[in-house]
Every structure is written in C-alpha cells, then in structure tokens.
Amino acid sequence: MARRKSPFDNILPPKIGPSAGVLLYLLLVTACQPSGTRINPQAPKAAYSRTTMEVRNEQFLSTVNVPVSISIADIERQINNQVSGLVFEDNQLDGSSQQGSGSTPYWMKVWKRGNIAVRAGVAGTQDSLFHFTVPLRIWAKAGIKVLGFTRYQETEFELNMRFATRFSIDPDWTVTTRTQADGYEWVKRPSTSIAGFAIPITSIVGRLIDQNLGTMSQALDQQVHKNVDLQTPVLKAWNTVREPYLLSEKYRTWLMVVPRRILITPFRFEGNQIRATIGMEGHTLTTTGSKPDVRPAVTLPNLVVVKQIPDNFQIGILSEATYEEAAKIAAGEFVGKTFSFSNDKYTIAISDIDLYGQNDNLIIKAGLTGSITGNIYLRGKPYYDAQTKTVSLKDLTYDLDTRSLLQRAANWLLQGTFARMMEKQFTIPVGGQIDEVRNAVQARLRNNQLTKGVIMSGNIEDIRPDQVYLTPTALLAVVYAQGRVSVKVDGLQ
After folding, report:
1. Is 125 helix (H, G, I), strand (E, B) or coil?
2. Source organism's superkingdom (predicted)?
3. Cβ of 362: how many Cβ atoms within 10 Å?
C-alpha cells in the first residue's frame, strides 16, 4: 500500500553544492581565528651605505705623543761605540796636493785615543750644538830640510782636539753633523832626532794640523754619516707598531695602528738631558675576525720637523652585534608582552621581532596579534649611549606605509605610546665588549717595554661615542678611547 504524502515532505533541506561547501568551511575556519583587523604594510627596502669591512677599516687619525729624554751620557756612549780606530789619513809625500814651494811634504794618520767627551750647548735653548773633546793619537811623517837636503822623519804624539758639532736628522732619516774645529791642546808633543840631535817639530806639525783642521772635521762628519744608522732601528720599530695586536680572544678583536708619518720637535737641552718630542701620526682602529694580513714596510716616511705636537691620542673601538643577535635580544624584551589601549578596549601582543638597516635607520619589523594582526614597521636612529653602554634608539616612528594603514584601520595605536615605549626599552648591550677592548688597550699602554731601555706608559682618560654604523650584516658601535702616552728612554742601546 502506497505511503501517503506528509505535509512536511515539501520542507526537506536543500542539497548543498560544492561551492557552498567551500564557503561554509572558510566561514568556520575564519570563526576559529583570532579576531582583529589584519594589516599588511609594504616593508621598507633594506639599504646600506657602508659594508662591514669598510667600517672596520675606518681610519681614525690620531697622534701618539712620545716625549723623549736622552742623557748626554747615553749620547756619549753611542758616539764612542760608533767612532773608533783610524778616523783620518792624509798622504802628501808625493806632492799631489800641489803645495807651494815652501810647503812641507807629509803623511799623517789619526786614531781615536780614548773616549770622546760630549757637552751640550746652552741649557734651555732649542739648539742642537754639541761640544766634543776628542783624544787623538797622531802618527806623522814629515819632510824636514837639513843642509839643503830633505830628510823624512816619523813621529807620534797625542793631543785633545775640540770640535763644535751641530746635529740634525734629515727628512730621509740620515744623521747629519756639521763640525767645526774649536782648537786643541797637546798631551804629548812631537819630536824627532837627526844625526843624534833632538829636533822639535811641534811647530811644523802644529802648522800641518792647522792646515788640516777643516779636512779632519769633514772626516768626523763622514764617520758619523757612514756609521750612525737610524733607518734600520726605526724601520724595525715602525713595523712592530704596524703588527696587529690581539686584544680579545672572546670577541676576536685586533688593535691595528696604521702609521702615516713621524713628527719631531727641535732638540732642547735641560741639564744633562736632551729633550724632544716625537709624534707618530697615523690611524688606529680595532677590527674583529681573523688576524689582518699586514706586510712589513720596506721604507720609512719622511721625518717632519714641527714646532709642537699634540699630546693626546685616540683609538677607535668597534663593538659588533649581528642583526640576528640583536633581534634575539629585542625578542627577549618584547615578544609575548601584551599592551592595552583606550582603556583596555584594544589589546595587542608582539609575536616576533626582526631587524635590518636602511641607510642610517634601523628598521624594526614587529609581528602583532590581537586587535591588530599582521606586521608593522618602525624606523629609528641607533646611537651608543655612554651611560648605559648600550646601542639605543632615538626618533623611533612608524614607517610611512605602516602609518598610512594604521590611520585607516587602527588610529588608536598611533595615538598611544607604543612607539615611545619601544624606543625607551630597545637596548642592545655592547659595554662588555667595549670594556674588554678598553682594558686590553690600557694594559698594552701600562709600562710596556718596547725594547731594552725603552718603556711606554699611557692612560685612557675618556670614552667618547662616535656613532653606530649599519652594515649588511651587523650593527657596529664605534667609540673613541682618548688618553695620553709617553715613552721613557732609559739608556740608548
């Protein structure tokens, strides 16, 4: 028997098509998502005006002031070490000098007999005049006319000769002396005998000495010019200074000095001391990573004489934080925190932080959830805060496209203190690295024996911030370590 139709047969649910099923699924999924306005501003483009290597190699011009005090006794010892043995010889027996008819043919050899005594010029003056007393032993062979015949006789005698010498160092590091004779005194007078008769020839030899004083002075100058070598020890010191010095194994930080020129003030005499100031002008920097490859120099720059040399120095200290490291530090401060606005009407939480650079600005990409979902971008100027020893931000504002979207979708966020809070609490500690480098530099300066008898002492007096550089890989905070340094020369070697 056939079933009779029910009045409800005509209100059965309609069939659901495929498109309607997808729509229903999307509605259900959307309902399960956090509520809030979704925004997706355009990300500012990354841009960098310097590479990390360029900042590391940034040159910070400074002058290391080296007051040098050298005793007259040290100079005396140096000269005696350099000048010894035969210092002068002249042979005029063959008449090669084309002397007049009344001249005396001779052959003369002069040796240094004992230590040369040195006395400085007028105290308190900027004068490089030295007075030398040179003990000499002289052998002479002179032609003496007896009864119309010339007889040659030999004699030996001793005297102390006095010279006044003006000392200078040429720009090419050559030591130059300009010596003038200042008289002499007999210690052992010359004499000889012919046919058993003693014949004093003091007057003859004295005349020969007077004739050759200029030649002997030139010979002494030539001995100094030939034997006194400043280039070799100074070039060795130059290359020692240029050698990179490991300041921190932990941060792989190296101190580099790139010297450019050497300055010197005129010599002055104070008591038994000769004083001058030497300045090494160059660039100092710290760099991180592997030890820099520095090839030894083969020549020195010219020496420059100046009236005065600055008495301070500065070293650029770099502290490096990669964007990844900085983002982790910022995430530890901000991620997971909830912020309320307009009397708790709106709330947001920071879900993630990312950092990169755009020329002089640090870009902060902050992921948000809550009343707003999506990313926002802020930009601010990084700087080194000397009080907190951190990289901090100033003038932190929303990026232009982010601000435009927020004005339409979440103006309440613009009116709040979110950006100011981020600016205040965003800090990247770099003081540990800077302090370690500073302490290493200070240790390097404190009573450091450069070589035997030469001790360098210095002190870092101030740390002054330069700026924070943004490179493709890291934030580099640069500070200046400023101070003074001096070198004590306790005996020339």
Report:
1. coil
2. Bacteria
3. 23
Which residue ranges in the chain fall short of pLDDT 70? 1-36, 56-68, 94-104, 122-128, 144-150, 192-202, 204-205, 227, 284-285, 311-312, 447, 450-454, 486-493
| Domains (range + CATH), the chain | 72-227 (3.15.10)
Query: What are the DSSP calls for 386-413, one per residue?
Result: TTTTEEEEEEEEE-HHHHHHHHHH-HHH
Q: Are 433 and 240 in contact (CB under 8 A)?
A: no
pTM (two decimals): 0.55
For 194, residues 6+ apart whose C-beta sits below 8 A from its C-beta are 144, 146, 151, 153
Contact (CB, 8 A) for 489 and 466: no
Give residue-wise pLDDT tens across range 176-214.
Answer: 888 888 888 989 887 766 555 555 666 766 777 787 778
- Paired residues of 161 in beta bridges: 134, 184
- For residues 317 and 389, what is the distance between their CA atoms, to the nearest angstrom? 13
The amino acid present at 267, given as its one-letter code, is: F
CB 477 within 8 A of CB 464: no
The pairing of strands 268-270 and 303-305 is: unpaired
The beta strand positions in 101-196, using DSSP E, are 106-112, 117-120, 129-146, 149-169, 175-188, 191-194
What whole-number distance in Å separates Cα of residue 331 and Cα of residue 72?
66
131 to 24, 42, 82, 220: CA distances (angstroms): 110, 82, 17, 13
Q: How far is the C-alpha of 158 from the C-alpha of 370, rounded, in Å? A: 106
C-alpha 458: how far from chain center: 14
Pairing of β 372-385 and β 37-39: parallel
